Amino acid sequence: MQPSGLPFNTLGIDSAIDRHPLTVAPDTPLVEVLGLMSKLRSSCIIPVCSSVTNPLEASLSSTSGGGLLDRENEKVLDAAHSAGGCVLVMDGLQLVGVFTERDMVRLTAAGASLAAVKILDVVTQPPLVLKHSEVKDVFTVLSLFRQHRIRHLPIVDDGGSLVGVVTQDSIRTALQPVNLLTRLRYVRDVMTPSVVHAPLTASVMDLAQLMARQLVSCVVITKEARGNCTESSNSQFATSTLQLPVGIVTERDIVQFQALELDLSKTQAKDVMSTPLFCLSPSDSLWVAHQEMQRRRVRRLVVSGSGGELLGIVSQTSLLQVLNPADMYGVIEVLQQAVEERTQTLNNTNERLRREISERKRAEEALRQAHDDLKKQVEERTAQLTRANALLKQDIIERQRVEAALRQSEAQSKEQTTKLEQTVQELQKTQAQLIEKEKMSTLGQMVSAVTQEINNPINFIYGNLTYAGQYVEDLLLLLQVYAKNYPQPADEVQEEIDTIDLDFIKKDLPKILGSMQLGADRIRNLLLYLRNFSRVEDIHKITSANVKQRVENKAIKNSHYLNF
Q1: Is 282 found in the same domain as 345?
Q2: Domain boundary at 284, 306, 323, which?
Q3: Are residues 318 and 342 in the same domain?
Q4: Each residue of 279-301: pLDDT tens digit?
Q5: Per-residue CA distances from 87 to 20, 24, 164 (Å)
Q6: 243 near 307, Cβ under 8 Å?
């Protein structure tokens, strides 16, 4: 009988129903179903991180689009996690069968060929279903799970139409409000000590056959190590040889391997196992195990000792055992007894507090009397301070009058200082102008002398360049006439022509004369600029006409630099 006042309304089944399970038609090839199951979620892994540890795992990851040992994005993982590793075979709206990962492992262990098999040929028929109207709470579903050793139960309405599927995953996720029970129990209370394990060199086919033979959903991959036995070790490992868990292979991994068409007989466990493992301690609470399963999205966690030796395994089935009604009622009775004891303690504390309050009231009365006496003393002291404050105010007023006179004197001093600084600045400016004027006068005289010295030879060069150019043209014309009338010159003449490279001279000589003419023009322009510059006697007396002339001279100078 359920104890009164227990909030078991949170154990309803509706929140644990996955209403969008994976469904296929009866004539769907089994190979295609494997592809759908492998795409829906990657392998069930228990690593601390998602990094791939060997080349084969890397190839599996790139082949499957998400990887056997890699996490897919969060949305796909959440959907796949609730799916629970089963496929419902639907003929229209009628459920005709259920295909699970365990069925796939059984087929793999039997060595059956999957190429031409339809899904309807291998599903469990007729499927075990439960009407939604017959479900009272999760205990009904858990009872069927234990009775039939299943992990998936389709839910239908009164007309036989599919409502959804309930799995161990969905129940564990939905029962968050019952976490108090998992906080009060420990891993050692529910773990399975007899763990099916295999060495690193075992083939995947051997692992599948081991799962089918032992009716387990996973095989822990171990390596042997010698060491001293600890008190926490169970009897299975009570020898000097310890089994250290290094990886795990699950039913879901077998489905993935079949979808990838791997040769299971030649593939060793060490190449495809999920590693590294996250291990629990026997002293961890079931709430820690529950949180780790949710955070890592796995169904089982390995339990190891202080030396890393394999002690057991905790699965979703282990966690759901906590929801046994008898165990729950026993825990609740213990809690109720603890509440009664705590209530009695609180009553005693309240009585003690009442006595303390009475004592506090008496102390408050004494404090009130002391407060009145203190108030009188404060009033007397306040009167004395008021008189002293009046004297202090008079002193402050006198000080303020003196400070005002000082500020006025300081302002006058600042004004005189400012005027003096302005006078000094004007004198410095006048001095700078005089120095600049003297520099400009000296520079003008020097520029005039330099211009006169350069002007005479450049006029000589400039005046003769025109005649030199004409003479060169005449000579080149004469050479053309000579070459035309004497196309075959004497050997000595031809040798001299080749020596001096006459063709090059014909091309280059006009260019040289042009360059000389351009250089002479630039020198004349520069001399004109310098002559105009030397004529300005006072830079501060330049008229508008002088400004225009200086702009033109500046343009001539810039043109010289641009053409150079």
Answers
A1: no
A2: 323
A3: no
A4: 999 999 888 888 888 888 888 89
A5: 11, 7, 12
A6: no
